[in-house]
User: What shape does this take?
Amino acid sequence: MQVTLLNFTPNPEKMVAQAARLCYSPQISTDLPPERVPSLILEVVKRGHESVLEHVSFTFLIEGMSRAATHQLVRHRLASYSQQSQRWVRFAGADFILPPSIEQNPRAKILFEELVERSRDTYQELINLGTPREDARYCFIQAVASDLMLTANARELLHIFRLRLCNRAQWEIREGAHLMLEAVRIVAPTIFESAGPPCATGVCPEGNKGCGHPWKK
Ligand SMILES: Cc1cc2nc3c(=O)[nH]c(=O)nc-3n(C[C@H](O)[C@H](O)[C@H](O)COP(=O)(O)OP(=O)(O)OC[C@H]3O[C@@H](n4cnc5c(N)ncnc54)[C@H](O)[C@@H]3O)c2cc1C
Assistant: This one.
């Protein structure tokens, strides 16, 4: 899987700090000293005043994620998505994601690869028979890879990271969340400083279902 940060609000940290400062000032501070930016962000976020984070957004290109994982990702309703359409795009040489647990087991890997081959061949044969792409795609298994664009504001991203970086989340969406976090930390390190599952900053809510291995940055 590959995750690329395509675009983001310019000066995201300054924008959030300005929003935070405005809440407690008679007018917006256009000349906010740069050294005030991190402390303003950390102060308001610590207090749960998270709406200031909604003024900045980030757009990612996510390539090579299985439909099994993208289906989970798009459940995050406050983000926006554009996903390659299996109705219109010809998936003749489709890629399929091989889960590590299957890769590590020789017999499981053979079974999986046979099914992938069959899925590819069946798709091609259905297309050759004149089947519309929107129907031929029904023979794809959930491992079929696709590309999508995701745009979310910083508040929603922190929420996604809270849920999807948890060791209890599914491995592929966790990997995607991890790559997204790595990318945004470069451009907005303070906003995403404490990003991670609940155990990164406090107590695991999973109780006896917890993984027992607190998350490491
Ligand atoms: C480990 C794990 C296991 C899961 N297992 C399953 C499963 O077995 N089956 C299944 O169906 N799903 C499952 N999910 C998906 C889960 O139920 C959520 O749909 C998904 O994580 C999106 O989270 P969200 O609704 O908080 O986020 P978003 O849609 O990103 O929303 C962000 C926040 O906005 C608020 N919000 C958004 N929309 C509404 C609304 N309509 N009403 C009120 N508040 C709203 C909520 O506070 C929400 O937390 C699982 C998720 C995880 C992380």
